[in-house]
Specification:
Helix content: 55-70%
CATH topology of the largest domain: 434 Repressor (Amino-terminal Domain)
Oligomer: single chain
Number of strands: 0
CATH class of the largest domain: Mainly Alpha
Number of helices: 8
Order of helices and strands: HHHHHHHH
CATH superfamily of the largest domain: lambda repressor-like DNA-binding domains
Structural class: mainly alpha
CATH architecture of the largest domain: Orthogonal Bundle
Strand content: under 5%
Largest sheet: none
Shape: elongated
Radius of gyration: 20 Å
Number of domains: 2
Distance between the termini: 64 Å
Length: 121
């Protein structure tokens, strides 16, 4: 079994997440950037690294920056709506955010059920 480098694991994971955010299968994505589906699978699983020309194609096809793919850095202007922002979170961050939103929503529902709460400002 090939030794996977940690940076390749992170890059592969970010490519997979971006591909899924764009609702692309490995096959469709591979076709868009001119590689095989097996290469996409290997890339996402950190079996292979990524070349600069392929990185450019990946970023263009997925609408994300190389800073995101290589380093996980997200530019504020790239985030857009809440759905996109949430898609950049790790599973742990997503769950914490979901809990916070649920608490906020419950509080807002409770306020809307008692209109007198709005007059006490």
């Amino acid at each position: 079994m090939q030794n996977k480098k940690e940076e390749f694991i992170d890059i592969g994971l970010r490519i997979k997440q971006a591909r899924e955010r764009n609702s692309l299968t490995q096959e469709t994505f591979a076709e868009k950037i001119g590689v095989t589906p097996q290469y996409i699978s290997d890339l996402e699983r950190a079996v292979v690294g990524i070349s600069v020309p392929t990185l450019v194609k990946v970023c263009m096809a997925l609408g994300c920056s190389s800073d995101y793919i290589l380093f996980g850095k997200v530019n504020e202007q790239d985030l857009g709506d809440i759905k996109t922002k949430l898609s950049y979170l790790s599973e742990e961050q997503y769950k914490a955010t979901e809990q916070a939103i649920n608490l906020l929503a419950d509080a807002m529902i409770n306020l809307s059920n008692d209109p007198s709460q709005f007059n006490n400002q």
